[in-house]
Specification:
308 residues, alpha+beta, Beta-lactamase, 5-stranded antiparallel beta sheet, 3-stranded antiparallel beta sheet, 8 strands, globular, binds 6-diazenyl-5-OXO-L-norleucine
Length: 308
């Protein structure tokens, strides 16, 4: 369905007002102290369309911590580097458990269910690291994001990375557990440090929507991701992008999406649009409460769905 840009702009402005009027923002993540400081009463949205236009509303120029959304781009880099090898170390099935759960890791002998739960993302980051210095692995993720967004002003917030390094005890446990199964090839502290910094990348929804064009395979997107890899990232975002809330997101929004505990969500309408929403308050699954609501409203307004 083609959407008129003027109508979409009007709709998004109305959505900003509607969300502010609801005042139901959810709770910010507090297990990373730096994120606990963020005011939950914020919302921004940006949509990059197939005709090359970009429409934004609300707090669209505000930088936020992309957190787990980075996992999609790390995986893109790893697939580019090692091809399919990563699938010997991590699965492609939804976990049905929280993003930081250790439950299945023992049952499944240290092979995480998918690359988007924390255990799986640690393995992907470990593969990207591949005995390089962490700064080189991080430079590769940043270079990919900057190229995808066509914007060099994308950086890591060291305060967020340090904050998580001080309190990320579950990730430390997961990394050590993976190491005990030989599914971490670098020292756990190196993989963890790289992972915490990757999660601490900050972007605006405008930058994120532009970066998502490569996954949506929009005509004006830089040619840095093959159509086949984009299809696979979309499949994983659809089935695993919201952890134990993935089914609910698919049911309500009908599009692949990846959330982050900083309140951002990247939503892909393949071939049509790349949508980024941000609102820092979270729902029970650790995904943005108003971001999910906004994605649902945008999908309904535009008629975009991968289910026809
Ligand atoms: O590893 C963590 O817990 C965070 N750096 C990222 C988790 C996250 O974003 C979950 N997503 N909603």
């Amino acid at each position: 369905m083609r959407v008129k840009t003027a109508c979409l702009k009007h709709f998004l402005n109305g959505l900003v007002d509607e969300i502010a009027a609801r005042g139901d923002w959810g709770e910010v993540a507090d297990y990373i102290p730096e994120l606990a400081k963020v005011d939950p009463a914020q919302f921004g949205v940006s949509v990059s369309l197939a005709d090359g236009t970009q429409i934004s509303a609300g707090a669209s120029a505000e930088r936020f911590s992309i957190q787990s959304i980075s996992k999609v781009f790390t995986l893109a880099c790893v697939l580019g580097r090692n091809g399919e090898q990563i699938w010997t170390r991590v699965g492609r099935e939804p976990s049905g458990t929280r993003f930081d759960s250790i439950l299945l890791l023992e049952q499944e002998k240290g092979r995480p269910r998918n690359p988007f739960i924390n255990a799986g993302a640690l393995v992907t980051t470990d593969a990207l690291l591949a005995h390089r210095a962490p700064k080189d692995a991080l430079s590769e993720v940043l270079a990919f994001l900057r190229a995808a967004a066509e914007d060099d002003d994308i950086h890591i917030d060291p305060a967020v990375a340090e904050s998580e390094a001080r309190t990320g005890f579950r990730n430390v446990a997961l990394a050590n557990y993976l190491k005990s199964y030989d599914n971490l090839h670098n020292p756990p502290e190196l993989t963890l440090g790289t992972y915490f910094h990757q999660c601490a990348i900050e972007m605006t929804v405008e930058q994120l929507a532009r970066a998502g064009r490569v996954i949506a395979q929009l005509p004006d997107a830089p040619q840095i991701l093959s159509p086949e890899k984009a299809r696979r990232l979309n499949a994983l975002m659809m089935t695993c992008g919201h952890y134990d809330g993935s089914g609910d997101f698919a049911f309500r929004v009908g599009l692949p999406g990846k959330s982050g505990v900083g309140g951002g969500i990247l939503v892909i309408a393949p071939g049509r649009a790349s949508i980024a929403v941000w609102s820092p308050g979270l729902n029970l699954y650790g995904n943005s409460l108003m971001g999910t609501y906004a994605a649902e409203r945008i999908a309904r307004f535009t008629g975009w769905s991968v289910f026809g």
